[in-house]
Structures are given as structure tokens and as C-alpha cells.
Amino acid sequence: MDQFIRLAIRGISLSQIQSGIYVLLLEEESGKIKLPIIIESLQAQSIASALGKRDLSRSFTHDLFLSFAKEFHIKLKAVVIYKLVNGIFFSYILLEGDHIIEEQGKKMKKEHKIDSKTSDAVALAVRFQAPIYTTKEIFDKAGIYFENGFPKENDTYETGMDNNKNSEFIFYKEKSQKDLENMTEKDLNALLDHAVVNECYELAARIKKELDRRE
Q1: Higher pLDDT, residue 173 or 140
Q2: Is the pLDDT of residue 43 over 90?
Q3: Which band of pLDDT confidence, cut at 50, 70 and 90, is reported for residue 8?
Q4: How many CA atoms lie within 13 A of 128 on its CB side?
Q5: pTM, rounded to two decimals
Q6: For the residues of the chain, what is the DSSP string, one character each?
Q7: Picking from 109-113, 166-170, 176-180, 201-205, which range would have the lowest pLDDT averaged per residue?
Q8: pLDDT tens, 145-170?
Q9: What are phi and psi of 214, to 5 degrees?
Q10: ∠14-16-20 over CA atoms, to 5°?
Q11: Which carries the bigger pLDDT value, residue 106 or residue 124?
Q12: What average pLDDT does this structure show over 95-103?
């Protein structure tokens, strides 16, 4: 996994724009780059439960998978977020289990790669205490860079100013897709900084998706 970047879970926040939607925030080990991923309520609750932040008496399908894996000596070695297309993250889980060679009667370990919904993969990774990885390409597309706890400034625009440089850029959390499409790249970058500072990571993810679409 040397070619991948290891991630840690920074937190989960409730969307302030759409009901029932959460934002899973991952970050690389230095904490300078954060990766927001939009997930559904059930997966958010499952991840929070595994992190010990919710009622542990509630059981999820991911808990059943953990019990099944332990019974059959299956190990989840890693979760890899390997592709990003049109704002959708693609992942796989890397499993290791016993494989019996019938002719020789020997037992050996064998790896299996299985595609998975990213939120489900993360929910499993937390339960198995398995590492989560992604690629540099995904970080370049969707990662948000920080310096000293704040988004890294982009030299191509002046954060907080409009096109005429006469008034401050006003930050609104309520932005429709049409609003984003009508904004200039300069204003989108400024809005992205404001969204991150105000911890509105769902909006940040949507802005990154719109910027990526224009490339």
C-alpha cells in the first residue's frame, strides 16, 4: 500500500442543506488535507456506532458481517477508495481468508478484492480496525488543503472579494446546484474556503464537484 495515502476519520456532520444526508470527513495523517464524502443516514449511524458515539445496543448489518468474518477466520486487511467519477467515490475492501488446496490438503491464506459502497467500506474498516487508503489523484481532485487549520489560499483569487473587488463576498450555506453553475471559478473557490471554515462540508463537496466538472 506504499502508493496509497492512509486516511483517518475526522468526523461526521449532519447536512445543513438536505435532510437525512451526512458528511463523512476523512483526512490524511498530517491533517493538512481533508476529504469530504456525502453519505446516507444509516451508514452515518453505523460508523458513529462503531466509533462509540451512539447507542451500542443497536445492531447494524456491518456488525453481522463482523461476526460472520470472525467465525470463518476472515480478516479485512484494508479499505481503498480508488476512483472518483462525477462526484461519486468508488471503493473496494481487501479481505484475507483461509484457502484449502484439495489435492494437497493444505491450508493457505488468500486475498480477495470486493467492490463496496464507500460508506459501507468505512463502516467495516472501523469495526475491523483496518486502515483506509486513497490515491493522490483523488486528493488532487476532491481534497481540501489546510495550513494552520485554515484552507490554503489560492494565489489566483482574493478570498472574500467579488469580481469588482468593491464588496465582500457573502457566504450562504443554502446554495442550489444552479447557483453553483452560475458562479465563476474565482467565486466558487472563495465560497469553498468559507464552506470549510464554517464546517459545511457537504457544500464544500458539491463545490469541488462543480469545479471538477469544469476541468
Answers
A1: 140
A2: yes
A3: very high
A4: 28
A5: 0.69
A6: -TTSEEEEEEEEEE-SSSTTEEEEEEEETTSSEEEEEEEEHHHHHHHHHHTT-S-TTS--HHHHHHHHHHHTT-EEEEEEEEEEETTEEEEEEEEEEEEEETTTTEEEEEEEEEEEEHHHHHHHHHHHT--EEE-HHHHHHH-EEEETTEEPPPTTS-TTB-TTSSSBPPP-S---HHHHHTS-HHHHHHHHHHHHHTT-HHHHHHHHHHHHHT-
A7: 166-170
A8: 765 544 554 433 233 333 333 323 33
A9: -85, -10
A10: 55
A11: 124
A12: 71
Question: Which amino acid is residue 186, in one-letter code?
Answer: K
Domains in the chain, CATH or no CATH each: 5-135 (3.10.690.10), 144-213 (no CATH)
**Which amino acid is located at 38 in the chain?**
I
Cell readout for 55 is 447507542
**Rounded Cα–Cα distance for residues 198 and 150 (Å):** 10
Cell of 197: 471554515
Residues in the chain: 215
Q: In which order are the strands placed within the sheet that holds 106-117?
A: 106-117, 88-101, 75-85, 132-134, 5-14, 21-28, 33-40, 144-147, 150-151
Write the CB contacts of 58 (distance below 8 Å, at least 6 apart in sequence). Answer: 45, 49
